[in-house]
Every structure is written in structure tokens, then in C-alpha cells.
Amino acid sequence: MFSMYSKNESESRKDEEYCNVWLAVSDDGVHWKDYGIVISAPFRVYAMAIYKAGDVFYLNHGSYSDNGCQNVLRFWKSENLTDWEYLGKEYDLRPDTRYYDENSRLDCMDVLINEEDGKTVYNGYATGPGGWLISSDGINWEGKRPPIIEWGEISPPPIPEEEGIFEIGGCKKIGEKYYLIGGWFNYMGYSGYGVYTLIGDSPDGPFKPDITAYRLNGNSKRWINMWARFCRADNELLISSYLYDGYTYEKGSTYLPPLKKAVADDFGHLRMRYWCGNEAVKGRKLPFDCNNNSIIFNDALLTNLQKRFKIINDKTFELSTCEEIPSYEQGDYVPTAIVQNEFLFDFYKGVILEGKIKITSEAARCVAGSIGFYLAENSESGTYILFDSYGVTRIGQLTVKNNHLNFVAEDETRTGFCAAIAGITPQEYHTFRIFARKNMFETYIDDCYIQTFNTTHFINTIGVTPKKIGFIIQNGIGIFEDICVYEMNIED
């Protein structure tokens, strides 16, 4: 794992301090050890990408020209990934002025290696308008016109002309299709950062937005889960991203969330799935007993006849409000009941929560119910994750005061737009996984990736690390079954 790196810890994040590349190594993609600085350059080093040509590894990264424009790609080579040699200025790439302004952005380049007519062709996809380059040897590159994009019904990202179509995260071939991913801010109805998928039949397009599964990850009101890059482990195609514990990257620290498996489903949509390699993060199994709970019903909405909490065994319980309350009368974000387990978990070290959930109803005509989880930060508030039975997953702040519960939504995933699964199917069991460490967490339903988020609710702050686990329903009968909790076996 390679990263741009500043030797000076600075709130100002001065660009000129980033002249280094840091390396961390791992045997399993879960437990990482710092190796240290492997590149100290006489110029700025921005985000980087690595590929292999023959027996040699090449690293490219964005940098600045003398006039202060981020319009240079610089190249290094290595035979062992630790000792790197700068190829020299003669190999630096700048925007091809036949197609682009000389001062337009040119940043790190993902490389797709193809076999075309019996020859190896290296296709480069760099961030910036000059984002498509071709090489026959992986060393000498020729600029090409931008990949063809047919936006159709989707509006392109609202970005400056010198930035290109968006921040390209890479392009890979899965089956017979080419999947181009890239991200930007303030797009598709959200002010945060999102990554999106376009699909083509050839390396140069035409690429088209995958409308049904357009948002791959990120895209909330906040800059939390950013970028996405393809990478490989053995023969598996994976996706990495990065995560902040604050409201934006200007405030807080950067982390690597669990790696995801990249798959094209039966309909050709690029989606992320749980990567089995992440099982390596599971440490000892922690005690969990359904009898050790406190129950809070929303007294503002319910009578005693509507409240029911039934323990089936020490790992399974049922929580219901019997006579459902139509959400259109009470507002979309009103929980009816929560169960809070009184065991204090060490979220700072890391907790994994797994099991099965189901939302159903006693009514002949099912009122749409919701079921989910609550990461309690203190006695009066925390962060909720709620799976609706009508195609929406919500994340946000939950407050508890005098047995009155209230939601404030901060992120939404909706059916028909996201690659992530939105909501759950009522009256059916679904498996769930929640990875939580410090104030950050990630969720999966039926091993399908949902979202990566944190407990930060206010700008210029770092969210509180949770202390307890809770369970939520909104209308209906919720069943939480075979609940297991594990401690993460990683260290700072």
C-alpha cells in the first residue's frame, strides 16, 4: 500500500510538504505494517498508481510544473517495490496540446493491460481531461483524445474544464465489458464525494453511465468515503477507497476501510461484495446476551398494548410495536422502539457485529416497516443504520430524551440509483455485517456492500467513538437472530 506522505504533521496540509511516498505491507490485506518512506522526491508527489510491464514495476504520480500547474505525470521504476528510481524528466508526461490545454490537470494514471491482435497494449486512464494514453511497452506513452462518453439521461459532473470528466479511479475489463470509475463532489443531489460507474465495449468507449447502479460508493452530505481504485489480490479483482473520521478531509485523519470484492452481476452492473479475506480481522468472540438489554419504546407514539419485547434465546429476540403506525402520519424518521445491549464494547479497538434480521407485520396488508442498528455514543444520542422495506437505507443521528426517539438523516441509499443494496425485502431473513472501529463503521446486507460512514454529526469535529450496540425497529415486528460479536485483532 503506497501513499503520498508529509514528514510534518500540519493542520494546514501544505501542498509543498508532500514530496514523499510511504509504504505499508501486509500478508493478508487486513493487518498492515509500516515499511517507511520509499521515495523522497525533489518535487511534489500526489496520488500514485502502480502497474507492471514485463518484470519491472512502474509508479506514476501527479506533480507540478514550474509554473505551479498540476499538469505533470512523473514515473519511477523498481524491481522489488521498495527501491525506486526516477526515470527522469524525459519520461515526464504533460497534456498533449493537440487535444488539451497545456496547463490542464494531469494526475495519477491507472493502467489497463490488454492483448489486441496478438500485441500487448497498455491503456492509461489518468485524472484530468487528458485522461486516456496508450503505450506499447508501458514506458513510452502517447496522449489520445478523451474517452468517448455518451451521458444520455445523466448530467455530467459539474467540474471545471481543466479537471476533466471527473477524478478517474481506473478502468478494468470484466467479462466482455470495460468498467470506468471516477468521482466528484456536489453531484447527483449530494454535496459530498461520490464514485460512479460508466460501462463501455472497448478501452476508448463509448462509455455510458450505468444508470441503475451509477453510484458505486460515497455521495452523502459529507466527504467521508472517497475515491475508489481497482487492485488485485491473487486472482481476485478488489476495490480500495479511503475514509475520514471527520466531516471532511480538512478535519480529521485518513484510514483504509476493508477491501471489497469487485464483481459484475448477472445484469452487468459493477457492484462491491464482502471480501472473504476480511475474515482475518476477526479476533475473539465477545459475550452477548439478549437478557442484558434496556428497552426504550417511543412513548410519544405508543400505548402499552403496542409494545412487545420477546427473548427467543440468548442470541435471538423479537421487538415489535404490533399495531403499526403509518409513517406518512408521523414523519419518515420516527423510530418506534430500540433495544440497547448494556455490555460495553471496545469500539476503539474494533467490533464486528453479525447475524440475521427480518422485518414483518401482523397486519394483513403490511405497513412498510424498517429495522436496523444503533451505535450509542452516550445516554442520549448515537448513530443509527436503518434498512427500510421500501427500498431505502438511511444513516444518521438518533437522539433519546425522556423516552422520545428522533432520527436526523445524514445519508441515504435508494433503489434504482446505487450499486449498493437499498433497504431489505420485508418478511424475509437477511444476513448482516457491521464493521466498527473508533468512530467509523461499514455495513453489509447479504454480503452486499452498503456504505462506509462515521459518527461525526457536526462540521469541524471528530465524532464520538460508540460505547454500546443497539437495535431499532420502525413499525412492525423485527427479529434479530443469531447475533454474534467479535473483537477486531488489529492494533494502532
Summarize the structure.
Helix content is about 0%, strand content about 50%.
Structural summary, described in words:
This protein is an all-beta fold. Among the domains are: 1-114, 5 Propeller (Tachylectin-2, Chain A); 282-488, Exo-inulinase, domain 1 (Jelly Rolls, Sandwich), CATH 2.60.120.560. It has one helix and 36 strands. The protein has one helix at 327-330, and strands at residues 2-6, 18-26, 32-40, 48-53, 56-63, 72-78, 85-86, 109-116, 119-126, 132-135, 142-143, 167-174, 177-187, 190-200, 208-209, 215-218, 225-233, 236-244, 254-255, 260-264, 270-274, 282-286, 293-297, 308-313, 316-320, 337-341, 351-360, 370-376, 381-388, 392-401, 404-414, 430-437, 440-445, 448-454, 468-474, 477-488. β33 and β34 (448-454) form a beta hairpin. It starts with a strand and ends with a strand. Mean pLDDT is 88; it is low at 327-333.
Distance between the termini: 16 Å
Task: Give the tally of β-strands.
Answer: 36
| Oligomer category | single chain
The biggest sheet amounts to: 8 strands, antiparallel
Instruction: Name the average pLDDT.
Output: 88
What level of helicity do the residues show? Answer: under 10%
Shape: elongated
Q: Helical stretch count?
A: 1
Strand content: over 45%
Low-confidence stretches: 327-333
Structural class: mainly beta
CATH superfamily of the domain at 282-488: Exo-inulinase, domain 1
* CATH fold-level name of the domain at 282-488: Jelly Rolls
Question: In CATH terms, what is the architecture of the domain at 282-488?
Answer: Sandwich
Radius of gyration: 24 Å
